[in-house]
Amino acid sequence: MGRDPGKRLDALNREIMVCRTCPRLVAWRERVAREKRASFQEDDYWGRPVPSFGDPKARLLIVGLAPAAHGANRTGRMFTGDRSGDWLFRALHRAGFANRAEAVSRNDGLTLHDAWLTASVHCAPPDNKPIPAERKACRRYLERELELFLPRLRVVVALGGFAWTQLYRTAGALGLPVPRPRPSFGHATEAPLTTAPDAPTVLASYHPSQQNTFTGRLTEEMFDAVWRRARSLLEA
Question: Which CATH number is 99's domain given?
């Protein structure tokens, strides 16, 4: 990653935070920040693209979908302030990747160890569904993150099928020798990111959204198993 990975990632995050490329996303994120949810009326919403965060020397990359309208779009930190984040950070804490199990604000003292958390799209989309043009426009940020982390990257966890697909598209856009056909998504699936002999392993997990956790499609034991596997691959 070079001599100053933290500085390079900070510069990338600053670029992300001022992005206004996608008019629909700009309008939506700012509307949500103005109108707010009743239970958060006293909160000062972030209402901008949400930067990535974590350990700049990470060997584990975690890729999600996009900020939640009243979660990260409110707090300004990935997976912070909503129930998906509750699940994620509890699991990361149990696996030793986070110093605490709860994430409520950007200033709550939570840090990640050997892990970097990013998203396929950095702005909250209507109905949690970015359109193809928005997905493509935001891919340049994930491309640069992959380039920065690849020298030491060992494991990638894709949270959901959208992140899984975007990850392989991003690797292909960088000219990396991705597997053909692209590996299919499925919870606990493992596949190499590229066909290179030392390629990072990609682990798939259902996204910890309420749609999956409330219905039992994703249980905490299933989720924990993904992070235990990530830990074992890092320690191998």
Answer: 3.40.470.10
